[in-house]
């Protein structure tokens, strides 16, 4: 039960940061998303995001910050095994399933629903 609480709190705080960037910082949604992705990447590069995932579980893996974490994590892991080229291949290897799912589901949604405008 305690794990659910901390997942809710950490995930909620990440969302609050995003909302503050939109409302107080007057950033566009694209800028806000970029800031959160880069923040996740920087935290992973510093070795701070994995402990956050261990502590908060889905509260840290569901928000968009985890995408930046996945990019850096995959690049660093692959770079250790294959060298400098691993930086590029690691990014694609780790994120390919999520990106593929987004493309497929986006395409299916475009087929099923008629956009307004």
TrEMBL record:
InterPro entries in the record: Spore_V_AE, SpoVA
Signal peptide extent: none
Pfam families in alphabetical order: SpoVAC_SpoVAEB
Membrane-spanning residues: 6-25, 55-72, 84-113
Swiss-Prot/TrEMBL keywords: Membrane, Transmembrane, Transmembrane helix
PANTHER family: STAGE V SPORULATION PROTEIN AC-RELATED, STAGE V SPORULATION PROTEIN AEB
Name of this protein: Stage V sporulation protein AE
């Amino acid at each position: 039960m305690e794990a659910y609480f901390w997942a809710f709190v950490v995930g909620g705080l990440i969302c609050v940061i995003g909302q503050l960037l939109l409302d107080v910082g007057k950033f566009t949604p694209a800028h806000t998303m970029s800031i959160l992705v880069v923040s996740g990447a920087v935290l992973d590069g510093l070795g701070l995001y994995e402990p956050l995932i261990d502590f908060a579980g889905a509260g840290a893996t569901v928000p968009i910050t985890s995408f930046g974490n996945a990019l850096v994590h995959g690049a660093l892991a692959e770079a250790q095994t294959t060298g400098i080229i691993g930086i590029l291949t690691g990014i694609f290897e780790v994120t390919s399933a999520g990106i593929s799912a987004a493309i497929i589901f986006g395409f299916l949604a475009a087929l099923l629903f008629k956009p307004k405008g």
